[in-house]
Fold each of these.
Amino acid sequence: MRIADSVGAGPYDDGMIIISGRLAVDPGDRDAYLRGCSGVVEQARAFPGCLDFALGADLIDAGRINVYERWESEEALEAFRGSGPDEGRTVAILDAEVLRYHVSGVGPA
């Protein structure tokens, strides 16, 4: 399981941070898992420095949850981190690859 915090943040300039990746859960439990995460999503979106926060069911893989977070800064992300998934949410995760990206520039797509 590879989660962003296990990779190490390192010394970066204070800029936008994107957390992106995937979680694997039992396909039969995915919808219940996502419903159980609605409070965390609401909490994150209301948190100072959170620009976006989404967990969503993958359209093809019934056991996959896509993770996307966008934060104003490393400081904002770290301030929120203490309110991550509770143990019940973590136990349901079978595998994960969620990484932290430090954005050096932003422009139209």
Amino acid sequence: MDSRNFPLPTSALLSVAKRFLRDDEGFIITIELILIATIVGIGSIVGLTTLRNAINSELADVSDAIESMEWGDDDSRAPSSAPAAANSCISYSVPPTDEA
């Protein structure tokens, strides 16, 4: 293609470019939206990190509680005359009462 067949209107392009460079309408709103989006993004990252740490802590506590349970695998601890519930994983202890 020869550029002589399609002349570029330089004066029209220059006027559009100048008008585009002078136009600052909406610039402040765009900066404000970018600032708000940045604050929301950072806040959500911090919030999700805190939530992750809290969930990990709770799951570690549950893991420790399950690990510390007596599962009743060792039958040598319970006497042979003990009921079957004595070997269960849940044990209840009743505090002594002061009935006098």
Amino acid sequence: MQPDQNLDNVRLDIEAVGFTLDDDLQASVLDSLTKLQRFYKGDVITAEVYLKLEPNQRNNEKHVGIKYGVPGNDVYADDSGDDWYGLLNNVVAKLQRQLEKRFGNHTNANRGNIDEIDPADLA
């Protein structure tokens, strides 16, 4: 898959195993990665998304894993369940916690401090 414009030249690879990726799920993956990129302002090199449908498991279990290539060791999170969209949200939340734990707020320098925001500027 080609890098998306919203992901600022991050090399993106979405792999669907056991099913065909539809446009809605692909858009949801891109939205999730964009949300994660808003949270983490450092350099992101790659984003690898693995979506797997395991029909032989209980109730067609779904598996989502995201490997996020950042400086140092990459971060990875995964989850299994029965709802693609809920799994994506869970995995992104896990990645956010990992990035916050590892990098803290110093990589999020572009995020405004609530005390520095003038309410008049928001109008």
Amino acid sequence: MHDQTIVFKSSDLQEQSLGLRFDLPQLGEHATGFVIRFETKPYAYVNQCAHMPVELDWNEGKFFTVDKTFIICATHGAQYAPETGRCIAGPCKGKQLQPLAVTEKNNKVTIHLDSLVDALKKQSPKT
């Protein structure tokens, strides 16, 4: 069984700076997620473009556009609103990143994978 939370120190997550990546073995051997800070709040997503199944960052942790206003896919330039993960420009328009629940308390950012695990259980065939 995999851990259902991932915890980082709040101080490691800087405003509109590098995102923090983490493994998501629930989705496969090479699947990752990431958390960013935007307008003081943390947001976490599965690290996969809504257009094609590729990771968003080609330089590890670089998820923001040059002006730091959107998350960008380094492969095709798709842009996503940091607060919602909704694609606002590029080939994925109208789609969105898969969000992960995140909270911040007592100087810790916690990513909660319960909803991801529950969704995977619903998708797997019953035996």
